[in-house]
Design goal:
Blueprint lengths: L3 E5 L1 H4 L8 E4 L3 H13 L4 E5 H6 L1 H5 L8 E5 L8 H14 L10
Parallel strand pairs: 1-2, 1-3, 3-4
Length: 107
């Protein structure tokens, strides 16, 4: 099984340690970019990152988009939910399944 890490501000990620995830608290985008690259090189299978940081790291995250690992998943943080994480999961499901599974054909 591959390791799972969570990158974000301390308040947003500290609870993930109780689940056995490696928590990587960062204060700024440059530090997050470096840590994201480092975790990917170390072979982490899943990297969760707060939406606020992910917004600043779109180019870095795009490097891994077509790779199987790591899966980089945006999560809301304590500084607000932008909805970007849900949108990315929805896009991934659409690519995998071939259609929008949340779209109701009954309308």
């Amino acid at each position: 099984m591959r390791d799972i890490a969570v990158i974000g501000d301390y308040d947003s990620i500290y609870g993930f340690a109780a689940l056995g995830f490696d928590t990587i608290p960062v204060a700024e985008s440059n530090e997050a970019k470096h840590k994201l690259s480092e975790l990917a090189e170390q072979g982490y299978g899943i990297i969760y990152i707060t939406e606020v940081l992910a917004a600043d790291l779109k180019e870095e995250i795009a490097k891994y988009q077509d790779k199987i690992v790591p899966a980089i998943i945006e999560i809301p943080g304590t500084h607000g939910n932008t909805g970007a994480g849900i949108a990315e999961v929805k896009k991934s499901v659409e690519r995998a399944v071939g259609s929008d599974i949340l779209f109701s054909h009954d309308n």
